[in-house]
Amino acid sequence: MRINHSKREILKRVGFVLILLMVIRVSGLAQNPDLVLSDEERERILQNYKSIFPIWGKKAIERGFDLPFPAGIGINYLYMKQDIGLSALELSAGDNPTQPVDFIQFNDADSKVSSYNVRLDLWLLPFLNVYGLYGRGRADTTVLISEPIEFESGVSQVGNFYGFGFTTAIGIKRNWLAFDINWSWSDLELLDDPVQARILSIRYGRTIKLGPKKKLAVWVGTMNQKFETITQGSVVLEDVIPPEFKDTLQDYQNSEWYQDLNPAQRGIADQIMDKILNSDLGQTKINYRLDKAPADPWNMLLGSSLEWNKHWHIRAEAGFIGRFSIMIGLNYRFKL
Known about the structure:
Elements: H1 5-23, H2 39-47, H3 57-62, E1 71-93, E2 99-100, E3 105-125, E4 128-147, E5 151-172, E6 175-188, E7 195-209, E8 215-227, E9 230-236, H4 256-259, H5 263-278, E10 285-294, E11 298-307, E12 312-320, E13 324-334
Antiparallel strand pairs: 1-2, 1-3, 1-10, 1-13, 3-4, 4-5, 5-6, 6-7, 7-8, 8-11, 9-10, 11-12, 12-13
């Protein structure tokens, strides 16, 4: 089964964003000069230090930096809602090549995503973290068609995603700055090919000692996303056209939107309308191609994390202004 152009767009973006939002982790706590080790703490750690990673980790500790355990495994959950922009729609029926169409207009398209993933990471250097992840998510999308008829179409699907990325972090007086970039692929059940995406984010924050073992970090940030812009495939009409709308299309050739079409556009419209009016919607497919883009490539971030001890970390982050998202995660760190 295939999904319609707008739905597919949203689901692609959804899978993409979903993956990338879940992937990102701020890991700059160790680089905060406010959290330097005392001479006694530094000597105690160096006395038994045998870790291979991070490379140059011993030198960082000698300078007083309190490094986290190098390896980690985390579980994360994300909910997200965002808008999608759709354009340059092409359609055809049967074996005919797709042609541009102007008589189908989109009003709004939005998606809601919920997902979870497992993430493995390693501090390769004191300032460089590398990670990979794998997860599963659900995408619910809604598209409002304004012309030639007004109706709402929706679809839900699940799929797996995977990706990798890098985080760098530096200390700035009493604060830290973290840069993250990652790439991901979403393999959604109604799409032919995995959706490739890239996310770039920047976070600026501060970490505060709450006790001998506990640390609290708070930050603000921004995120930019980029994903594939062209979608093509076929859609089962039953997934796009509600059966009750057949009656409203019987006299479509006398409608204003049809009269405004040029001969070539009328030919495409006649092909599609013939399939809708005279075929089994559950067995009839329409070919499509279109461009998609995030309605808002950038959004803002606000988050916090609690390091309970060297092993356990919990984190929460919200996205706003551009898209809404909530992410929570639990991370366990260990020595190599």
